[in-house]
Amino acid sequence: MTILRAEALTKMYGSASQPIYAVRDLNITIAEGEFVAIMGPSGSGKSTALYVMGGLDQPTSGHVWLRDQDLTTLPDDALSRVRRESIGFVFQFFNLIPVLTAAENVAMPMILNGMPRKEALERAHTSLKQVDLADRATHRPSELSGGQQQRAAIARALASQPAIILADEPTGNLDSRSSDEVVQILRNTVDQYKQTLVLVTHDPRVAAHADRIVFIKDGRIVDENNLKGAGSAEQIREQLSRVALSEG
Amino acid sequence: MTTTKSSLQPATLGQMTRMGLRYLSGRKLRTVLTTLAIVFGVALIFAINLTLPTMMSLFNSSLSVYGGADIAIASATGASFTPEEILSRVTAVEGVSAASGVLRRQFTLPSVGNELGSANSVELIGLDPTGIQTVRQFAISEGRFLQPDDSGAVVMPAGIAELAPALGLGTRFPLISSTGIRFYTIVGFTAEQGNLAVPPLYMALSDVQAAFNQPGLVNQIEISVQPGADRTAVTDAILAELGSGYVNAAGLDNSDLVATVQIGLTVMNLFGVLALFLGAFLIFNTFRTIVIERRRDLAMLRAIGATRRQVTTMILIESLLQGIIGTLIGLVFGYGLAALLFSVLGNAFRTYFPSTHFELSLNFGAVAMAVVLGLLASLLAGYFPARSAGKTSPLDAMRPAAVNINRATRSSLIIGGILIGVSIVMLLAGTKTAVGGAVLFLFGMIVAAPGLVIPMARLFSPLLTLWFAREGDLARGNLQRQPGRAAITASTLMIGLAVLILMAAVVSAFGILLERLSDVNFSSDVIITPPSIGVYTNVLGADESLMQRLEALPEVETAASLRYALSSVNGTSVNVLGIDPERYTQVASLAFSQGDAETAFAALTSGRGAIMTGIGASTLNLQLGDEVVLQTANGEQTYTIVGIGNDIMSFKINAVFISQANLAADFNKREDVLLMLNYVPDTDEEAALAAVNAVLADYPQFTAHPTGQYRAELINTTSAAFGMFYSIAVLILIPAALGLLNTLTINILERTREIGIVRAVGGSRKQVRRIVTSEALLLGIFGSALGVLAGVAMSYGFIGAFSTIGWDVPYIFPAAGVVAAIIVGVLLALFASVLPARSAAKLDIIRALQYE
Ligand SMILES: Nc1ncnc2c1ncn2[C@@H]1O[C@H](COP(=O)(O)OP(=O)(O)OP(=O)(O)O)[C@@H](O)[C@H]1O
Ligand SMILES: [Mg+2]
After folding, report:
1. What does the DSSP assignment read for B509-541?
2. A156-165 tens-digit pLDDT
3. What pTM did the predictor assign?
4. Which range, of A57-61, A146-150, A236-240, B784-788, averages the lowest pLDDT?
5. Which atom number of ligand 1 is nearest to the Cα of residue B395?
6. Residues with beta carbon inside 6 Å of ligand 1?
7. Which of B406, B409, B429, B664 is deepest in the core (most CB within 10 A)?
8. For the domain bounded by A2-245, which CATH number is listed?
């Protein structure tokens, strides 16, 4: 079943006379329980595409369907609600609110949704356990390592059991060991809970865990790789450089 | 998951409060400084509203003219009346058991030769010895009560003997009256403590009528009701019977005094509100910084699904938290301030009002007002930053901010410029719009300030480079980086300094006005004044005999007098001054703003003509030729305004001058409360004064002064009173200083890492300190420049507005105020920079570099 579908998605910056297309006529379908990696050269529009698909930004044209809801037609409040109830985000930096503990950060979307604090914190603990961070629940972000911070952000994304998790280079800032831990956790949630996941990365070893890789260049999908989690990092790296060198 | 439309559930709000507290405690210094701004305003408002109303109610209760009878009725203006007809009408009312006429009045005693202990006022209460005992009973502790054939007999509260131990049964003592000094003998003491500030002296009605020169008159009817009758119902029935000329005496208070205290209360409250407004400015400044500083956190909240409203609410909660903390501390400080005031004033009060309960008590109104204003100010200050926080895009978490400072400052310049333009037109258009123009000008300056930061910094920084060659440029850059913040800080300073200049200008305009009025007013040779001028209610004047005796002196050519009664126009109380135009014009005149002296004075004697003071005319909205209905002792009477003019004694109150003949006919008043004399030409003034004083020996309530000397004294005391008011205005500079401190501190916190870099690449501590100092100086100069412009405009507008209330003064450029403002502004900035400069210089390099 399709969870998310982008249709003729275009995001343009600049003026009409000098347009810069960050995303151009992009079509993509994400199925339930699927783990999709997005790769592409720097500036190719990966983040932009992800933000628009996640309702953080509005496209210039085109549509994004989350299940049967067209996100591009929703007013801000409804979109905010979709973000806190149906979408989980993980970013490369500054994922956590510094004055909140790890558990409170994880509980925040639920609390924003009006869930009583106690219940939200209980759920947050369950979620932190999933990412193996239960013992750090009461720590502030400044007391966590980079990898731990990313795991807390993943716990937050998981906690509300969203329809889809969108992650923009969640391992971009981590050493290879922490990066492996994070990817492993993400892979497990997909396998165990049929969690749908879209992940932007530059790292072929991270992408290798995905079910499918989508290659983007100049805002368009230029290639795909249906590895079903069985691809090698080496092969992905080659494919990536082919994409980078190809004619736009 | 709960589907909610209103995203402000208790759990959400609770978590936001928790976050707010953590954010606030994460920046303790800034929080403290910002909170102080609210503390100051709230403390001021709270202290004022705790102290003044308590004192006012004390005044009221001590000055209440109501005795111990079931009901007391007085004429609406307090004037005296003939009792016979009224008494018979009152006793005919159902439920009334008995009624008796009373003539009672408080007056100020002369400061020398006073036999009644330390009291400086007494109240004579004239009673019909038999009649009054059918109305109420007196408990006699010593001696006896008054008897029908008593003359010169006095009964007084036993409590007085404590203040004046020399007084005992049989003691004979002198007392002033309007016909000269009279002697009285104490025949009894009542078993009451009494109001020792104004001791009541009970005497036979005829004695008091003689003392006040009001034969056959009373000013109150005391009434007892039949057992079982409803007192309220009987009162209503009596008032209905007597009509609008009579009122319940229990409801009377000393309206003159109360009105004065009330004006004081309003002015002080305005002051507190202004302080709070400046406090709100500081909070606004801080919260704008907070929103910029926390852009990433806010964006992250939006990314994980917080609505705009939730983000806005979160910042509002934080400003509310700060408001709550500031208000609570402000209440504590305010209470302390009030307690201090009470302990200072308390001793004086306890001596005079031993029977009253003199205690600082919390009243709900004062608490409510301080709390509401404190919270409102912080919420309002937080509102705009909170709204801009709500507009944070979720993408801001991932990208550096793109701020277009130029566009923002340009539009502020344009809008501010338009406001200033309109305000200048209003200022120049005429006196009616001048005050509005002055306020609008200030407002326009506040709006334009962000746009002025960069040009002003450019303009003044060459000046700075004289002392701070290199650091000056850095300081300029720092200010330009945050034009909004610099603008608000400078605006706070501007308001403080503008108020300073305004006060200076008003004080000097007042001085000019006083000089001018006294020129026309004080053309006599001698002025003879009662113990208190201005408030004539408590003055016991003299009957015709004094003036006759003075005029009989060979040295005196002319004598003229002023008489007094209280009246009201549509419920607004008006002082009525009686003059004899023919005599008055020989010794003095009025400064006319409408009409002219000749026709106006002549018109006083033909029918009912009245000359009104400027203040009176403007409060009652009257013009030359209008008719005005005065409440008199004999019902309502219509007077025609024949001129608008001021004299130095009454120019600040609602007053009308009418002829003494009309005053006698309509108000039953024949007492002279102030006299002026002209000598025959070439008199030896010293000898003449001695002759006048010899006559006054029988009227010790009066003092004679050579007019020139008196005039100088009056101007001096008035200026001194204004000077005091002026010094209070300086308090408004406290929030301005806090604002400077706050901004400099925020600037340093924000640039901690930069300061670390400056130090790491070899900048000395001294250089860092100089950067901060020069930044403060630049802010101070900027604020002073704005303050001078605003102060000049405000003083122009306000002094122009003087003429709408009948005070014509030319506008004189407040040069002294301007100089003072510049000095104060720059000194304040330097003073505020001391601590921030030191803490910046002391920063540990490594820690500064790691600061996030
Ligand atoms: N706010 C913006 N205004 C103008 N251009 C923008 C804006 N945001 C992105 N772009 C442009 O859109 C294009 C795509 O940017 P995007 O951030 O999506 O790339 P990316 O694939 O995520 O790159 P990277 O791998 O470096 O993160 C870039 O050319 C970028 O310059
Ligand atoms: Mg990117």
Report:
1. HHHHHHHHHHHHH--SSEEEE-SSSS-GGG---
2. 999 888 999 9
3. 0.67
4. A236-240
5. 1
6. A 13, 20, 22, 40, 42-48
7. B409
8. 3.40.50.300
